[in-house]
Write a structure and sequence with these properties.
- The complex is a heterodimer of chains A (303) and B (246).
- Helices cover 75% and strands 4% of the residues of chain A.
- By secondary structure, chain A is mainly alpha-helical.
- The radius of gyration of chain A is 19 Å and the shape is globular.
- Chain B has a domain of 141 residues: P-loop containing nucleotide triphosphate hydrolases (Rossmann fold).
- Chain B is built from 11 helices and 10 strands.
- In chain B, helix 3 packs parallel to helix 6.
- The chains are: A mainly alpha (303), B alpha/beta (246).
- At the A-B interface, helix 7 and helix 8 of A face helix 2, helix 3 and helix 6 of B.
- The structure holds adenosine-5'-triphosphate (ATP) and magnesium ion.
């Protein structure tokens, strides 16, 4: 029981990373029907920007004002920086090829991914880098037999706030409604007076920013980061997107959380080495029985 | 006085295929003008060209003294032209109310104006008020048509473009829709109406154009078009056929 509950908490923690990254895949796919392969690298680059901020940029600030300020500054700078990278990648790699159809865009996305990965390697070097230790006090909360670290609480709370904020923007605001309308029917959305380029700007800033913040949190959680980690996290997050139903935001969030929990349960009860096999097996089973994913598009449409 | 909306020698092509081959057409302030034509004649293409959804190969579209060529669709809506597209195109997973609010997207900073527009739309289509919170995809076809027109009116347009508003509706509803079109026009909106139901369309319109093979085959006051034998034969159920000796 204790193992189960602790694995559940561990699973939700890494599930939050997957969920935050998955939202970026899902938003871009929803509007452009494009799989943004560079998204995993936005995550990595975000993690490295956070690393630079914490180790060099604001070490003094951290010493002065305490770890909280340092962490917040690292998160915000990383999010803003990667939002800018997101816009630049969209302008240079995607916008010129939208008209050419889907396949060229996919190839261009792969190219952008390789380019970003190499850029990260050139800037920060090919070796592992380590986030500072003890950034957050190593406190533990004890609930009966289960213990949860302060860092896990922070990660879970922050992820929840970010996801709730995005959900609220997309579901409750006029612009969010416009984004959903554009995802559904681009031409008719244009007839409503919705500027497509604004919608693109929205998804290519918020998606990368969320991925970047996940990158900073991964750095704080595992401490070690590498320039290739975007592939692994990207693949998992993309799997989460498919699991939840691509293009569906709550689907991406829950898909990520479910995937994280499954992975940790698989690691605990089956075998740590086979946890990924377990995860993908579940994915295959879900897709056999629900090809549109767990939260696949509502079928209110009249055809 | 210059017309509110006009097209001059408009040529539209999909790839190498010219669909409109030099169309000139005008709509004056306060008018209802109808465009008739067989399936595939290019009627929807014409409306989409005005809205900026298809590129213009040659010719010009002018609205209130301004050239619309090369303008983006969203910029054209901002200027006061609104389209209710063929096949309704409501947003199925948005509620009825959300669909209406999307129609008012260009006016979103002007809450008072939106409230007035919503009131007008609810008065024309009471069902939309009743079903405000229903998902648009679950409305019946007729209700969706009302929503599409209502949504187009939410931006308080000067020109309303209607693409086959009576398509697939029961006869009672068809009559109701045409009454509403007349009512909208009375409220000061100029209307360009594309229709298959030539009889009804010529009933509400002041003037009409007939599109054939990408060109205008006939134009004139609605009453004249109605009594034209060729038009009767092609679009008014072949009344002229019966007169032929067998
Ligand atoms: N996106 C497109 N690409 C290629 N051809 C198109 C496209 N849209 C329309 N066409 C062609 O252009 C012609 C005119 O189409 P349009 O939809 O304007 O006709 P319409 O008069 O509205 O017909 P209907 O009464 O059936 O709605 C048709 O032959 C159609 O096949
Ligand atoms: Mg048509």
């Amino acid at each position: 029981m204790q193992l189960l509950l602790e694995q559940l908490i561990n699973g939700l923690t890494i599930g939050s990373f997957y969920a935050l990254i998955a939202l970026g895949y899902s938003m871009v796919y929803g509007v452009l029907k494009l799989i943004n392969f560079a998204h995993g690298d936005f995550f990595t680059m975000g993690s490295y920007i956070g690393y630079t901020m914490l180790v060099f940029g604001i070490a003094a600030a951290t010493a002065q004002f305490g770890p909280w300020t340092g962490m917040m500054v690292a998160l915000v700078v990383s999010a803003l920086g990667i939002a800018l990278v997101g816009i630049l990648v969209e302008r240079s790699a995607y916008r010129p090829v939208y008209r050419a159809g889907r396949l060229p865009a996919v190839v261009s996305a792969l190219g952008a991914s390789i380019f970003l990965q190499n850029t990260i390697m050139v800037i920060w070097g090919p070796r592992y880098q380590a986030y500072p230790a003890e950034l957050i006090p190593a406190m533990r909360f004890q609930f009966g037999q289960i213990s949860i670290t302060l860092l896990q609480v922070i990660i879970l709370a922050l992820s929840f706030i970010l996801m709730a904020a995005l959900y609220t923007i997309v579901q409750k605001t006029a612009f969010g409604s416009a984004v959903r309308a554009t995802a559904h029917d681009r031409n008719t959305a244009a007839l409503m007076g919705i500027n497509f380029n604004r919608v693109i700007l929205f998804i290519f800033t918020l998606g990368p920013a969320l991925g970047a913040m996940a990158g900073v949190m991964v750095g704080m959680y595992y401490r070690q980061i590498s320039f290739t980690m975007g592939w692994n996290y990207g693949l998992k997050a993309f799997t989460a997107t498919i699991l939840g139903g691509i293009g569906n935001l709550p689907g991406a969030m829950f898909g990520g959380l479910i995937l994280g929990v499954l992975e940790m349960l698989g690691a605990a009860y089956i075998s740590a080495a086979w946890k990924d096999v377990f995860v993908f097996l579940i994915l295959i089973l879900v897709l056999i029985f629900r090809p549109t994913g767990l939260f696949g598009e509502k079928t209110a449409e009249k055809v | 006085m210059a017309p509110l909306l006009s097209m001059e020698n408009l040529v539209i092509a999909y790839g190498a295929r010219e669909v409109l081959k030099g169309i000139s057409l005008s709509l004056d302030e306060g008018e209802i003008v109808t465009v008739l034509g067989a399936n595939g004649a290019g009627k929807s293409t014409l409306l989409q060209a005005v809205c900026g959804l298809v590129g213009i190969a040659q010719g010009t579209v002018t609205y209130a003294g301004e050239r619309l060529n090369n303008m983006k669709a969203y910029e054209i809506v901002l200027r006061g032209i609104s389209l209710s597209p063929e096949g309704r195109r409501v947003f199925p997973t948005h509620t009825v109310e959300e669909n209406l609010m999307l129609g008012a997207f260009t006016r979103r900073k002007h809450t008072g104006e939106i409230a007035a527009a919503r009131e007008r739309v609810h008065a024309l289509f009471p069902i939309l008020k009743e079903r405000g919170r229903q998902l648009a995809g679950t409305l019946s076809g007729g209700e969706q048509q009302m929503l599409a027109i209502g949504r187009a009116l939410m931006s308080s347009p000067r020109v309303l473009l209607l693409d086959e508003p009576s398509l697939g509706l029961a006869p009672i509803l068809v009559k109701q829709i045409f009454d509403i079109i007349r009512e909208i026009n009375k409220q000061g909106v100029s209307i360009l109406l594309v229709e298959q139901n030539a009889h009804r369309a010529l009933g509400v319109a002041g003037r009409g154009y007939v599109l054939e093979n990408g060109r205008i085959a006939a134009e004139g006051p609605a009453a004249e078009l109605k009594s034209d034998e060729k038009i009767q034969e092609a679009y008014l159920g072949g009344a002229a056929l019966k007169k032929r000796p067998s």
